Amino acid sequence: MTWLVVAALLLVVVVLAVPSRRARERLAGRRPAIRFDVPRIRAGWIVAGPPWRAALGTAGVAAGPALLAGGPVGALVAATYAALAGRAWARRAEHRRRAAQRAGSLDALCALVADLRAGIPPSVVADGGGIHRDARLNRLTTAVWRLADQTGAPAADLLERIEADARAEDRAAASAAAQAAGTQATAAMLAVLPVGGIGLGYLIGADPVHVLLRTPLGAGCTVLAVLLQCCGLGWSEWIAQGAGR
């Protein structure tokens, strides 16, 4: 029965590890820029998708060995922590990708302003220098072109103001994220504390892993502790996201 469960988990991992068509297209588009960076390519295959997919994939990888070593409770604990780590990894990668796209959009907007200041006709700039990576900047840029075409308003001044506002918004978001980093660090430290408790139990001559994984009372305490930790991590993440809004 145990081997059937392990085989099912491995099947889930294989299914989740195969990237979707959108992920393959995204990776194919990035490959020329990172073709000499093998670790980044491999990481891209794992995190090129929604966070829930990375969470399920890492949970399946961790649950199989933990099931053989620690039983069902050990598999639950390992899968939960692996899912949290995989989700955090995927969210961080997505945040970096969006930040890079945002920076590229602002640089393109700055280039638009420079071209207009240099006297390049607005029609040429609009055809060859669109903002393709940020939907909000796309809408604002389109509105500027329409306004300049209908009223003769200075497009360069309007675009420069849009860029300045966007960069100020990014600086405010970065400041809020820095202020919320303390909350996230505290949550991470509290999540690691049980490991210290288990080590302390071994130092005093007990066998806490056996008690927590192999006895009914210990298994109940373990499941409750994992549930409370997940709630605490979710709460701290909610606080951090609220500070960034």
Keywords:
87% helix, mainly alpha, disordered N terminus, 245 residues
| Largest sheet descriptor | none
Helix content: over 70%
Tell me, what's the shape? elongated
Number of strands: 0
Cα-based radius of gyration, to the nearest Å: 25 Å
- Euclidean distance between termini CA atoms: 48 Å
Structural category? mainly alpha
Strand content: under 5%
* Average pLDDT: 76
Along the chain, the helix and strand elements come as HHHHHHHHH
Spans of at least 5 consecutive residues whose pLDDT stays below 50 are 1-20, 27-47
Number of continuous helical runs: 9
List the helices and strands and how they pair.
Blueprint: H1 2-17, H2 21-30, H3 38-47, H4 51-117, H5 122-128, H6 135-151, H7 155-203, H8 208-214, H9 216-244
Give a quick precis of the structure:
By secondary structure, the chain is an all-alpha fold. The chain is 87% helix and 0% strand. Helix 1 runs parallel beside helix 4, helix 4 (51-117) packs parallel to helix 9 (216-244) and helix 7 packs antiparallel against helix 9 (216-244).
Question: Can you walk through the features of this model?
Answer:
The chain has 245 residues and is mainly alpha-helical. 87% of the residues lie in helices and 0% in strands.
